[in-house]
Each structure stands twice: as C-alpha cells, then as structure tokens.
Amino acid sequence: MKSDLSGRRVALLGQRPFLLPALMFALSTALSACVTINIYFPAAAAEKAAETFIDDIWQLQESPGQNDPQ
Amino acid sequence: MKKLLLITLTLLALSLPKTVMAQAEPDMRVNSPAITELREAMRGHVAQLRPLLESGALGMKMDGSIAVRDPAGVPVAERQKLAAVINANTRDKAALYREIARVNGHPEWEQQIAETFARTLLRRIPAGWWIQDNNGAWSQKQAAAD
Questions:
Q1: Of B2, B61, B67, B109, which residue is most buried, by most CB within 10 angstroms?
Q2: Is A12 domain-assigned?
C-alpha cells in the first residue's frame, strides 16, 4: 500500500507535465505584480493627503459660492 | 497528496499579488519633523498672502505657486518683504513635496505629489481669486458649476 503511494507520487509530475509550467506561471505572475506595485503612484491617497494638508494650512471651504470664512 | 500540495501552492502564489496590492494603497504619510516645520512656516506665509490674494494683487500659477498680478495693489514699502515671503513659500512647497515623497519611501513620486497638491489647491481656492494659466494670462476663478 505504502509503496504504491510513493509510486504514484513519482508518476505525478510525469503524468501531468502541465503542473510545473503552471506553477512557474503563477510564481512569475506574483513576482511581476510585485514589480508593478513598486512603480505605482497611489493617486487617491495622494489627493486625500493634499486635501487634508491644504485645508489645514489654508482653512479653505470647497463648497462653491461660499466666501472664505475669514 | 502531492497534487493537493501543488494546488495549494499555486492558489497561494496567485493570491499573493492581491494581498500585496491590498496593502499597497495605505494613507500617504504627511508627517515628519521636517514636514511639521514646513507646515508652520507655510501657515505664516498664508497669513501674509491671503489678504493680497483676496484683493487680487496676487494670484496663483497652475503649479500652485504665488505670483504678483497687480504690483500697484501692494504698498511700495511692503514689496520687498512680500517677494521674500513668496520665494520662501515656493521653496517650502518644493521641499514639502520632496519630503512627503521621501517619508513614503518613493523619492521618485515628488513630481506627481507636486502636481496633485497644485491641482487640489487650485480646486479649493474660493471663486474670485486670480489664476494665471501657463501662457501667462490671468482669469478669475469661476464658481464651480455643480
């Protein structure tokens, strides 16, 4: 029973040659995604940071038609 | 058993990018000792520039920096001091964007941060303030039509 199982293990990669390429593809996808993240600029986060900073400095209201409270 | 292991590994590898991406858009950090100093300095600039922006003597360029629109609107005795404030403000803004890029671990983001801040500032100033386009032409900001 035990030897049968290990025999199946050895045969696994031979019987399914697509498994190794599939695994390599998955890994390369994962790695390339990481590289993409490094050059990605977080526009939404930057805009939020800009709004918070500018409101703090300038005390401006965005609502149109409303004069500056100062 | 081995097949199960391979499938698990494959699924894990495929889900990895999503995990990393989910963590890739945290808030942008806008705090450091240098930023606190710049913030204080810029509050001081704003206090001096605001009345002249409201009167129309000053306006903003598309990059968010301050420019003199009507020199006659500034008392002669104050012109030199005003020029110094404008220069300091421009210099501090550049330093701020560089510092934000640095504390977020991406010095190469400096230009995009500068553009984002300029765009946000121009959107948030009140209607009636003057804006100079890239050709040098001045126009008053219109009230947002929404």
A1: B109
A2: yes
ipTM for this model: 0.81
Strands ordered across the beta sheet of B130-132: B66-68, B58-61, B130-132, B138-140
- Residue A22: domain span: 1-34
Domain membership flag for residue A55: no
Output A1 or A27, whichever has higher pLDDT: A27
Selection from B57, B59, B61 nearest residue B73 by Cα: B57
Global confidence as pTM: 0.69
**3-state class (DSSP) for residue B92:** helix
Work out how many domains chain A is built from and give that number: 1
A5 occurs within a structural domain: yes
The reply to whether A2 falls in a domain is yes
Q: Chain A: residue nearest B17 by CA?
A: A30
Nearest to B125 among A33, A48, A60 (CB): A60
- B17:A30 CB<8 A: yes
